[in-house]
Amino acid sequence: MRRRSPVPALRRVATATALSLVAGLSLAACGGDDDGGTTAAATSSGAATTATTAAKAAFPVEIAHALGTTTIPEEPKRVVVVGLSDQDALLALGVKPVGAMDWFGEDTYGKWPWEEAAWGGEPAALVSTKSYEINFEAVAAQRPDLILGLYSKLSRSDYDKLSKIAPTVAQAKGTAYTTPWRDMARVAAKAVGRTDQAEKLIKEIDDRMAAFRESHPKLQGQTALVVDAGNGPKSYYPFASKDPRGQLIAELGFKGSPAIDKLAGKDGFGTEVARERTDLLDVDRLFLLIDAAPQKRVEADKLFQRLDVVKSGNVTNLPYYKGTQLGAALAFSTLLSIPYALDELEKELPAG
Fold first, then answer.
1. Which has the higher per-residue pLDDT, 194 or 234?
2. How far apart are CA 158 and CA 285, in angstroms?
3. Pairing mode, if any, of strands 235-238 and 273-274?
4. In whole angstroms, what is the distance from residue 127 CA to residue 140 CA?
5. What tens digit of pLDDT does each residue of 194-228 get?
6. Could you tell me the CATH number of the domain that includes residue 101?
7. Which residue from 92, 189, 271, 295 puts its CA 20 to 30 A from 263's CA?
8. Contact at 8 Å (CB) between 184 and 152?
9. Is residue 109 part of a domain?
10. Do 145 and 273 sit in the same domain of this protein?
């Protein structure tokens, strides 16, 4: 089963490409730039705007990241994202990437309910392989003038290959896949010259989170876990506080589980919990990432059903692929998916 966190199966990127191939791709990326860079649409049809004088004046910009500092000489027109969720911030800002990764698979690409309208029926070309690796040839084929890898773990080798195609911004310093959503949104906005717009959207989300906390006082301070139950009852996968899911519920007023954080370790996103240690999941509230098939197995798991949190009715099921797809919205936790997630959580959680 694929955990919907960037565990090894999801965060591997291709590293076996020969340097000669990369050099060829770099030349391909340069060819036709004068034409493709000026005629390709850079914004979604639902939020199309012309670049303002202020945005143009913002360039050149320099962005520091885990693998160095990247200079973006002018407002980019063709952006490829190789971070698993990087398209969301750009779409929220009205910028439509020309290439993106398919994180979840399962025929979900370009169809997430918070993204679909922004794509306008035409999602970006895929630049990932079926095993969630970067397809360098596909990246170069889009003739990008900027590559973003914010929600990623680019190696030095991968970064060097991408940088030969176009200026590349890698993940922030620190543990990969744990950069707060605000920070990633601000980097994406700086890279495309839309910092003022990003700050406005961030404030709107901050205000909504504050309103949520105010309207749900009884939830404040409760211990909570987001748990992938797809492998239940053989095992469960609770996410740690530093995972984006853990960060999001903390912003809504919940507290994480010290026991799970300890098991996850300093750089861990979560931890596998065997059926025999289901007691570790007995917090005040569980957010269960689950679809129909595993739900039947979990309902038959006597150890899970004995938990106080289950008996008290404080388990909220969040589907990945069906219905609201709220579980996936929490996994993305982006400038675009968070407002959608808040809408749906309001329907699921008791007020007062």
1. 194
2. 40
3. antiparallel
4. 9
5. 999 999 999 999 999 999 999 999 999 999 999 99
6. 3.40.50.1980
7. 295
8. no
9. yes
10. no
Quote the tokens at residue 57.
Answer: 């004046």
Residues of the chain with pLDDT > 70, as a percent, come to 84
Residues 180 and 227 in one domain: no
Q: Which residue, 288, 295, 291, is CA-closest to 317?
A: 288
My answer on whether 80 and 113 are in the same domain is: yes
Q: What is the pTM of this model?
A: 0.85
The predicted-structure confidence for 113-168, as pLDDT tens digits, reads as follows 999 999 999 999 999 998 889 999 999 999 999 999 999 999 999 999 999 999 99
Instruction: Report residue 226: phi and psi, to 5°.
Output: -100, 125
Tell whether the torsion through CA atoms of 64, 66, 71 and 77 is positive or negative.
Answer: negative
Domain region containing 100: 8-205
Work out how many domains the chain is built from and give that number. Answer: 2
Residues 34 and 147 in one domain: yes
Amino acid 52: pLDDT: 53
